[in-house]
Amino acid sequence: MSLDQKFKEAEAAVKTLTKRPTDEEFLKLYSLYKQATVGNINIERPDMLNIKGKAKWDAWKSKEGMSQNDAKEAYANFVDTLLGKYK
Length: 87
What we know:
This is ACB domain-containing protein. Keywords: Lipid-binding. By secondary structure, the protein is an all-alpha fold. The chain has helices spanning 3-14, 23-37, 51-61, 68-86. Helix 1 packs parallel to helix 4, helix 2 (23-37) packs across helix 3 (51-61) and helix 2 (23-37) packs antiparallel against helix 4.
Protein backbone atom coordinates (compact mmCIF):
# COMPACT_ATOMS: atom_id res chain seq x y z
CA MET A 1 0.00 0.00 0.00
CA SER A 2 1.32 3.42 -0.91
CA LEU A 3 1.83 6.16 1.64
CA ASP A 4 -0.97 8.23 0.08
CA GLN A 5 -3.38 5.29 0.35
CA LYS A 6 -2.36 4.71 3.96
CA PHE A 7 -2.94 8.41 4.68
CA LYS A 8 -6.37 8.43 3.03
CA GLU A 9 -7.41 5.33 4.98
CA ALA A 10 -6.27 7.00 8.21
CA GLU A 11 -8.30 10.12 7.28
CA ALA A 12 -11.41 7.96 6.96
CA ALA A 13 -10.65 5.81 9.99
CA VAL A 14 -10.28 8.75 12.37
CA LYS A 15 -13.93 9.60 11.73
CA THR A 16 -14.96 6.24 13.17
CA LEU A 17 -13.66 6.91 16.68
CA THR A 18 -16.38 6.25 19.25
CA LYS A 19 -14.80 8.23 22.10
CA ARG A 20 -13.38 11.74 22.13
CA PRO A 21 -9.56 12.01 22.17
CA THR A 22 -7.95 14.49 24.54
CA ASP A 23 -7.32 18.08 23.50
CA GLU A 24 -3.60 17.32 23.21
CA GLU A 25 -4.33 14.37 20.94
CA PHE A 26 -6.60 16.53 18.78
CA LEU A 27 -3.87 19.15 18.44
CA LYS A 28 -1.31 16.52 17.45
CA LEU A 29 -3.74 15.05 14.92
CA TYR A 30 -4.50 18.53 13.53
CA SER A 31 -0.85 19.55 13.29
CA LEU A 32 0.20 16.35 11.52
CA TYR A 33 -2.74 16.60 9.12
CA LYS A 34 -1.98 20.22 8.22
CA GLN A 35 1.73 19.50 7.79
CA ALA A 36 0.90 16.49 5.59
CA THR A 37 -1.61 18.31 3.40
CA VAL A 38 -0.30 21.90 3.30
CA GLY A 39 3.33 21.74 4.43
CA ASN A 40 4.95 24.40 6.59
CA ILE A 41 2.60 26.85 8.23
CA ASN A 42 1.58 29.64 5.87
CA ILE A 43 -0.76 31.80 7.95
CA GLU A 44 -0.27 34.48 10.59
CA ARG A 45 -0.62 33.57 14.25
CA PRO A 46 -4.11 34.47 15.56
CA ASP A 47 -4.45 37.29 18.06
CA MET A 48 -4.28 36.65 21.79
CA LEU A 49 -8.05 36.48 22.24
CA ASN A 50 -8.33 33.51 19.89
CA ILE A 51 -7.11 30.85 22.32
CA LYS A 52 -8.21 27.85 20.25
CA GLY A 53 -6.75 29.31 17.05
CA LYS A 54 -3.44 30.05 18.78
CA ALA A 55 -3.22 26.50 20.14
CA LYS A 56 -3.83 25.07 16.68
CA TRP A 57 -1.32 27.47 15.11
CA ASP A 58 1.33 26.62 17.72
CA ALA A 59 0.78 22.89 17.22
CA TRP A 60 1.15 23.20 13.44
CA LYS A 61 4.17 25.50 13.80
CA SER A 62 5.84 22.81 15.94
CA LYS A 63 5.87 20.53 12.87
CA GLU A 64 7.64 23.09 10.68
CA GLY A 65 10.44 21.50 8.68
CA MET A 66 8.88 18.02 8.77
CA SER A 67 8.43 16.68 5.25
CA GLN A 68 4.89 16.10 4.04
CA ASN A 69 5.63 12.39 3.60
CA ASP A 70 6.98 12.11 7.15
CA ALA A 71 3.87 13.91 8.40
CA LYS A 72 1.61 11.52 6.46
CA GLU A 73 3.40 8.54 7.98
CA ALA A 74 3.23 10.02 11.49
CA TYR A 75 -0.47 10.88 11.03
CA ALA A 76 -1.35 7.34 9.91
CA ASN A 77 0.59 5.83 12.82
CA PHE A 78 -1.03 8.19 15.31
CA VAL A 79 -4.50 7.38 13.97
CA ASP A 80 -3.70 3.68 14.51
CA THR A 81 -2.83 4.51 18.12
CA LEU A 82 -6.07 6.43 18.58
CA LEU A 83 -8.11 3.62 17.03
CA GLY A 84 -6.64 1.21 19.56
CA LYS A 85 -7.47 3.60 22.38
CA TYR A 86 -10.87 5.05 21.38
CA LYS A 87 -12.63 2.59 19.11
